[in-house]
Amino acid sequence: MSRNNDRNIKKHNDKLHKAQDKAKLAKVTRAEKLKQITKKFNETKASEEN
């Protein structure tokens, strides 16, 4: 019997897609945090100049 049966392939793909989704979510979260930090920095910089 082969290791590459449908059940094992499905389990592997599910695990792979879960990891990819987790990485994608982390990337989006980091980007959002960076936007918030830059926005706050720009606001404080603008208020210091006035």
List the helices and strands and how they pair.
Blueprint: H1 6-49
Description:
There is one protein chain. The chain starts with 5 loop residues before the first helix and ends with a helix. It has one helix and no strands. It has one helix at about 5-50. The protein is mostly helical. The mean pLDDT is about 90. Helices cover about 90% and strands about 0% of the residues.
Briefly characterize the structure.
The protein has 50 residues and is mainly α.
Largest sheet: none
Uncertain residue segments:
none
Element-by-element helix/strand order: H
Helix content: over 70%
Query: For the residues shown, what is the average pLDDT?
Result: 92
Report how far apart the termini are. Answer: 75 Å
Number of helices: 1
**Number of DSSP E strands:** 0
How big a fraction of the residues is strand? under 5%
Radius of gyration: 22 Å
- What gross morphology would you assign? rod-shaped
* Strand-pairing-aware structural class: mainly alpha
Write a concise keyword list for the protein shown above.
rod-shaped, mainly alpha, single chain, 50 residues
